[in-house]
Design goal:
Length: about 625
């Protein structure tokens, strides 16, 4: 497999049709991109620009064309029409959603194949070690998380000018995700990323491109501002559509009153009406929203699950050690920990799908369990979509106590009627995720068990899933690596502390970090290895009464450092604003652009650290 480093000769391009273009000259441009699959236009005049040091996220519904556009940016796919421009000498690295390592014997063979002669191999070795890999692992026996880590090393090691990342957090555990955040925040490369991880997008993005109904709209702000901006656009479109409806009705009444007597004089008005109707038909409506309703069964007993002293070990490795918990009706429990810590094992034991080696698990009365498994293994590839929903028994499903035709229920989850006979093996990852949700919510339950439910779901579907779980009267137990999802949904977190030890914390993921004495920045690659077991009598670290000497020194010196960094930013920005600098002195332009990106990243980290220390000092002063 050749390395995904691409360069391109200069291609003439037009700067028309861009909502907003950054001031710095773009390194990469996609202009007026068109692509049609199976008669349905996917992209219709889409545009995207990437400048040096940019942090850009691509957002949109599943199937909107995000991954397709990223492949075109990486020169992995050609459009039907449109142009791709890449500044000469610019290097691009692309991380696909499903990396293929099958052509390589070991992880290092795969990584080394992506390095150019001038690249530093030791840098690749260091990243491998940071991500818990040696490079000697055989590619045929890697887990999903190990495959993703190997692909990240291959992508990051050459230190390219542009990183194109398609779902980089898929199959990564929380420590690896937080390490990747820190790595990308300090990278000099421009970053274009697709992700369903809301916290990841909010942390990294500085600009947002929304792919909607075939076109790209750009917001020069990060993902945190996207949803308010998107909702405003959709509201404006509804107003416009309403005005068009009224005008068409008015003009149609005029036409029906008799145009014959005034044919010559009013043919222009008639042509305008015909054009108005055509425009209305072409005004594509925004994609519908998933309609979810969980069918709740009988009321469970107050005590749902009680585990006492449960233990589980595999080949001498203890993954659960002397763990006890009581789960009551209405609880929302999140289970978190590094890959391999035993989250699924613990989940299975708590729900009766696995036996502990020691200890007991008692399940309460009137329990109706519904499980959404991580690997979608309960979906048989040869089964047709409609049959998977009905169980091959008729053409209807029961939702909310009422019969509903399967075609209508499919549309609630954004499936087209013509997909009814589609085999499950032909569905995309996002479609399989929606199908699993559709099956789960069509069956009566009072306990929902969700193992990585957010995999492959778009952000809008995730929002609706969170709302449904908030309204669900039963009990929810889930394992997830999605920090934002955990914070929004769960009422307590069971976290791996290493060596088979699990501790339950009140609140969501962020609350857990605070009780541990951790911050997201400290949960870096060091946590990729299991956390050492704490003494049994110390579930929560002792609260400090004053700052350490190191923290106090940083609190005093960081404001001065931030002022220096801001002056450096102002200097680089002034340099880049010089007329025709790129044409006159490309080397000076590159130095200034690189310096600006580094200074901005350093300032952001310094500000975060200063704010963290100020909050810590205030909390100590209040004790």
């Amino acid at each position: 497999m050749p390395p995904c480093v691409t360069t391109s000769p200069i291609i003439p391009f037009s700067l028309t049709n861009f909502d907003i273009l950054p001031m710095a000259p773009p390194l990469l441009l996609l202009t007026d991109i068109h692509l049609t699959f199976g008669g349905t236009p996917l992209l219709e005049g889409a545009n995207m620009s990437v400048s040096a040091g940019e942090r850009l996220c691509l957002v949109g519904r599943n199937g909107s064309g995000k991954s397709t556009l990223l492949k075109m940016a990486a020169a992995q796919m050609d459009p039907d029409a449109g142009e791709r421009f890449l500044q000469p000498g610019t290097t691009v690295r692309y991380l696909p959603q499903e990396p293929d390592l099958s052509a390589f014997a070991t992880v290092w063979d795969y990584v080394a194949d992506g390095l150019s002669p001038g690249d530093d191999q030791q840098f690749g070795r260091r990243i491998l070690a940071k991500l818990g890999l040696t490079g000697d692992e055989g590619t045929g026996h890697l887990s999903g998380g190990e495959t993703r880590r190997a692909a990240l090393v291959r992508t990051l090691a050459p230190e390219p000018d542009i990183l194109l990342l398609d779902e980089p957090t898929n199959h990564l555990d929380l420590p690896a995700i937080e390490w990747l955040e820190m790595e990308l925040r300090t990278s000099r490369a421009a970053v274009v990323l697709i992700s369903h991880d809301r916290r990841f997008l909010e942390t990294l993005s500085k600009a947002t491109v929304w792919i909607d109904r075939g076109v790209c709209r750009r917001l020069d702000k990060g993902f945190a501002h996207f949803e308010e901006w998107r909702d405003g656009i959709l509201e404006d479109e509804e107003v416009l559509r309403h005005k068009m409806d009224r005008k068409i009705a008015r003009e149609t009444r005029w036409l029906n009153r008799g145009v014959t007597a005034r044919r010559k004089r009013n043919m222009g008005r008639l042509r305008a009406l015909i054009q108005l109707r055509k425009d209305w038909r072409n005004l594509r409506r925004a994609a519908g929203m998933v309609e979810m309703t969980a069918l709740e069964s009988r009321r469970s007993g107050k005590r749902v699950i009680e585990a006492k002293g449960i233990v589980k070990a595999y080949d001498g490795n203890t993954v659960v050690k002397d763990f006890s918990t009581r789960i009551l009706r209405g609880d929302r429990i999140g289970i978190v920990g590094p890959n391999g810590a035993g989250k699924t094992t613990l989940l299975n034991m708590l729900t009766g799908n696995g036996e502990p080696d020691a200890g007991t698990v008692d399940v309460g009365s009137n329990i109706d369990l519904m499980t959404l498994d991580q690997k979608r293994e309960s979906l048989e590839g040869a089964t047709r979509l409609a049959d998977a929903l009905t169980g091959k028994s008729g053409d209807s499903v029961t939702v909310g106590g009422q019969q509903k035709h399967v075609m209508s229920y499919m549309q609630d989850f954004l499936f087209a009627p013509e997909q009814a006979r589609t085999q499950i093996s032909a569905l995309s990852g996002g479609e399989r995720g929606r199908l699993m949700l559709a099956r789960a919510f069509a069956r009566p339950s009072n306990v929902l068990v969700l193992d990585e439910p957010t995999n492959d779901l778009d952000l809008e579907t995730l929002d609706l899933l969170q709302e449904l779980l908030a309204d669900y009267n039963g009990t929810v137990i889930l394992a997830s690596h999605d920090r934002d999802f955990l914070d929004r949904v769960v009422t307590s977190v069971i976290a791996s502390e290493g060596s088979g030890r699990w501790v339950e914390y009140a609140g969501g993921y962020t609350d857990m970090l605070m009780q541990r004495g951790d911050t997201p920045e400290r949960e870096t690659v060091a946590a990729l290895k299991p956390r050492a077991a704490a003494p049994k009598d110390k579930k929560v670290p002792k609260t400090k009464t004053k700052l350490s000497y190191k923290d106090q020194y940083m609190l005093e010196t960081l404001p001065g450092e931030m002022e220096m960094l801001q002056r450096a930013i102002d200097h680089h920005q002034a340099t880049l604003a010089e007329t025709d600098l790129f044409a006159r002195d490309p080397a000076r332009f590159k130095t200034a652009a690189d310096g600006l990106a580094k200074a901005e990243a350093d300032l952001s980290m310094a500000e975060d650290r200063w704010l963290e220390l100020e909050i810590l000092r205030d909390e100590m002063d209040g004790n």
